[in-house]
Amino acid sequence: MYNVKIKHYRFGDSQVSVYSRLILTGKRQKKDVVADTLAEETELTLADEDARHQRSVQNSMKRSLGTIYDISRSNEWEYFVTLTFSPEKVNRYNYSLCSAKFSQWLKDIRKRVGSDFCYLVVPERHKDGAFHFHGLFANCDGLDFSPSGHFDNFGRTIFNIGSYHLGFTTATAVSNNESVTKYLTKYVTKELVESTRGKKRYWASRNCLRPIEETFCFDVQGKGVLCRELVEDVQYYKACEYNVNSKDCLSEYFENKYLTINAAAEEVV
After folding, report:
1. Reported confidence tier of residue 263, pLDDT bands at 50, 70, 90
2. pLDDT per residue over 193-244, tens digit each?
3. Residue range(s) defining the domain that contains residue 14
4. What is the pTM of this model?
5. Do 191 and 92 share a structural domain?
6. Using a CB cutoff of 8 Å and minimum separation of 24, what contacts does 125-129 make?
7. Are residues 96 and 154 in the same domain?
8. Same domain, residue pair 104 and 195
9. For residues 139 and 161, what is the distance between their CA atoms, to the nearest angstrom?
10. Shortest CA distance to 202 belongs to which of 212, 187, 190?
């Protein structure tokens, strides 16, 4: 169990989660699982159907966002890309067909470019219901990038991807990993989660790095010292209040650089 979790990303970035309650880990006893299941079923019979659905959507979106964020922050990217689907190639309103076509393209292009090709791709559903994809690429020299003759708002060249034949493409060089991560995660919306229920919501190559995680169990005084130290050079902070078994709980999230924790001394080093 723990009440502090640290995720170490590339370039010295760290995210620290501090919880007011202990987070249990390991296998749960079967009797506890059965008891929780019965309690949940009793609760669900009394709960409103729409409320249950919304809770499920929110939890699913949170998991997808967390995974996409972690992968994006843990890798160094070269290009931000947009990939669309031509109506002559595939029904862009059918997510299953778009996913199948895109997955096959990734499989084929990986054979061509090589196993070093690194990617993280998420779908976006347009207002009219059509799907297209956005992603981050690295080690992708064999994709046949060519200047489109256009530039973005920062004066960077917009490229087209010659090896992609399913629709229109754009690619721009990544200048800030943190900014492009926030840009990518904004596409994971409630509407997207609902329209892709039970289906793949992101594509990540196996060679994508993941954050290194550490967990700690601090007493109340230790958590107080930790939070005060984190606040001194925090780059981003967020607090979330929630309820567990009729008890009010708090989760605090800090983003800092070059952070380590000495668990024995219970202080920030």
Report:
1. low
2. 888 888 889 999 999 999 999 999 999 999 999 999 999 989 999 999 988 8
3. 2-73+211-268
4. 0.82
5. yes
6. 125/189, 125/191, 125/192, 125/195, 129/93
7. yes
8. yes
9. 14
10. 187
Query: Which of 184, 186, 187, 216 has its CA nearest to residue 71?
Result: 184
Residues 193 and 116 in one domain: yes
Closest CA to 14 of 2, 4, 23: 4
Q: Would you say residue 55 has pLDDT above 80?
A: no
Cβ atoms within 10 Å, residue 22: 10
**Three-state SS annotation for 197-228:** CCCCCCEECCCCCCCEEEEECCCHHHHHHHHH
For 131-139, what is the mean pLDDT? 97
Round to whole Å and give the CA distance between 85 and 253: 38
**DSSP code at position 54:** H
Answer yes or no: do 47 and 111 share one domain: no
Tell me, what DSSP letter sits at residue 156? P
Q: Is the dihedral of CA 168, 152, 9, 239 positive or negative?
A: negative
